[in-house]
């Protein structure tokens, strides 16, 4: 290989080390989202709130595996590994662009669906369903649908979860200042969708550069073998 090919090889290797870290971060980010959201799928016919976090975790695992092929292919100058890496990288690039476009196009529709999720949870907040608002109120530090007035105005007892716990007394000075769960849940998804959208664009650009480098290296590796 010529000098430029060697430079490209090590740049690609560094890129893939970064991708390994990105894959780990995606897995952690998706896990944190699942932990915060909890499983509300039983209370919504429209959408499973675990869907996007699970997709993020899967994407993180895929990125991690692809980066492994990229590192091995670049350092060992293996055409097979590099070809596999290029094909997988192209597929991930296309899927990621599709996800980002979907996020931009469907953002408002998705947030409206999240509002409906909280409304449905509120409507089914009874002993038969295990009081699902408790999990929501503890996770998002909120109270009621729009505030604690949703309980007091309907002569309902304010649950301890409005104070962030299932045990002990809940003082009014704590829960009256808590925001409604619909707003907090919507804000959670709004901020995370923005992170996914703009981070997705940045990562897609890096993936495009890595794909270009991989194709160049494949050509260089093949020429080196034929010249032997």
* Sheet/helix structural class: mainly alpha
Helix content: over 70%
Report the strand count: 0
Which overall shape is indicated by the principal axes computed on the Cα atoms?
elongated
Question: What's the rounded overall pLDDT mean?
Answer: 80
Distance N to C terminus: 11 Å
| Computed Rg | 24 Å
Give the strand content.
under 5%
Q: Report low-confidence residues grouped into runs of 5 or more.
A: none
Please tally the helical runs, counting DSSP H or I stretches of 4 or more residues.
7
Give the biggest sheet: none
Instruction: Spell out the helices and strands N to C.
Output: HHHHHHH
List keywords for this structure.
74% helix, mainly alpha, 7 helices, 228 residues
Polypeptide structure, described:
This protein is mostly helical. The chain is built from seven helices and no strands. The chain has helices spanning 3-37, 51-76, 79-123, 133-140, 149-152, 172-175, 181-226. Helix 2 (51-76) packs antiparallel against helix 3.
Quick structural overview:
The protein is mostly helical.
Provide the fold topology.
Layout: H1 3-37, H2 51-76, H3 79-123, H4 133-140, H5 149-152, H6 172-175, H7 181-226
